Amino acid sequence: MTLLFCSNIDNAGLWRDALGRRLPGLSMRVWPDIGGPDGDPDDIDMALVWQPPQGVFAGLSNLRLVMSLGAGVETLLRDPTLPDVPLVRMVSDSLSDDMAGFVALQVLRWHRHSDAFDAAQKAGVWQWLPYRPAREVSVGLLGLGELGSAAARVLTALGYRVLGWSRSPKQLPGVEGFAGADGLAAMLPRCDLLVCLLPLTADTQGILDRDLFARLPAGAVVINAGRGGHLVEADLLDALDRGHLAGASLDVFSEEPLPPAHPFWRHPRVRVSPHSAAATHPSQAVEQVVATVTAFREGRPLANVIDRRRGY
Ligand SMILES: NC(=O)c1ccc[n+]([C@@H]2O[C@H](COP(=O)([O-])OP(=O)(O)OC[C@H]3O[C@@H](n4cnc5c(N)ncnc54)[C@H](OP(=O)(O)O)[C@@H]3O)[C@@H](O)[C@H]2O)c1
Q1: Which of 88, 141, 249, 281 sees the fewest Cβ atoms within 10 Å?
Q2: Residue nearest to atom 24 of ligand 1 (CA)
Q3: Mind listing the pLDDT tens digit for each residue in 202-242?
Q4: 191/216 Cα distance (integer angstroms)
Q5: Cβ distance 160 to 190 under 8 Å?
Q6: Residue with the nearest Cα to atom 32 of ligand 1?
Q7: Residue nearest to atom 46 of ligand 1 (CA)
Q8: The pLDDT of residue 35
Q9: What is the pLDDT of residue 72?
Q10: Which residues line ligand 1 (CB under 6 A)?
Q11: Distance between CA 50 and CA 292 in Å, rounded?
């Protein structure tokens, strides 16, 4: 069995070591070297990838399994060379922990005036600012999957009121659930902060737009850790500049890296992070890949397979 590894951010050497220890006999090639010194592309039957270049699967006629190093697979689904084989996404406790931590960090940052205190310290000013108790602050989560439900657990533990929106109705401890278009309409006016943790699909593309922002209460904060394609950037800038939204924390962008001239970099009420909300750490994520490869080898059902009709 030969695995093709392709990622421009994940460390191939760490993955080779981690997989080699757990799956002796597994041969790994690192894209663009699909032939290798002693093999040809037909040996490759599995791929482990993160946002590979379009067309990466061309010529891999024996590919039987594609595993994503990330939780979101929208770029893979857009690739016309993706074969009709199981596509397995990344699910790991560590990824969920990271995202829950990122969401808590951003919620606390806005709710507890963290940026204002940083600015006051730089000016040498002792500036007390009032804030509401967490249990009187409502955080809405768009998406209650692996990452949304992990964020909900941390936010409820911090005392926040948590509202959550999903495609199918969900019951999670301490979370008021909403589903469908009517559910979204009911949830939005109640959100002091809104967090996007949706997959990017035809249904969710551009969901963070002028219409959605208008349904949030004045002074709301938007946190996007889903995908850049969820956000209509001009609509966000307009809602911020009109004073309807108080701020935004953005981890993902329609163009990454965010271009140097982009207004988000210098906007006083936008906080930018470089798609770093949650990472796939080989030490933690290797177990999922090993479990998938082992199940695949033994012909058992695979977990975390993407439903291509739903798009996630
Ligand atoms: N910024 C980062 O560093 C980073 C890292 C990892 C992942 N992500 C992003 O986070 C996304 C979510 O990951 P996940 O593992 O939580 O995914 P997941 O487990 O598949 O959960 C997706 C959630 O979104 C809901 N959803 C999907 N389409 C919807 C729609 N049209 N209307 C309402 N709800 C909808 C699903 O509803 P159901 O429960 O009813 O299916 C589910 O609750 C990924 O796809 C990726 O884009 C970002």
Answers
A1: 281
A2: 143
A3: 999 999 999 999 999 999 999 999 999 999 999 999 999 99
A4: 6
A5: no
A6: 167
A7: 72
A8: 85
A9: 98
A10: 70-72, 143-148, 165-168, 170, 197-201, 203-204, 225-227, 251-252, 275, 277-278, 312
A11: 16
Residue type, 89: R
- In the chain, the domains with their CATH numbers are 2-92+280-298 (3.40.50.720), 93-272 (3.40.50.720)
Contacts of 115 (CB under 8 A, 6+ apart): 109, 271
Q: Per residue in 28-37, is it b (16+ CB within 10 Å) or e — as a string?
A: bbbbeebebe
262 pLDDT more than 90? yes
Enumerate residues 6+ apart whose C-beta is below 8 A from 123.
none
Q: How far apart are CA 255 and CA 241, in angstroms?
A: 22
| Residues annotated catalytic, as ranges | 227, 275
Strands in 2-7's sheet, in edge-to-edge order, are 27-30, 2-7, 44-50, 65-68, 87-88
Cβ-Cβ contacts under 8 Å for 149 (sequence gap 6 or more): 96, 164, 170, 172, 175
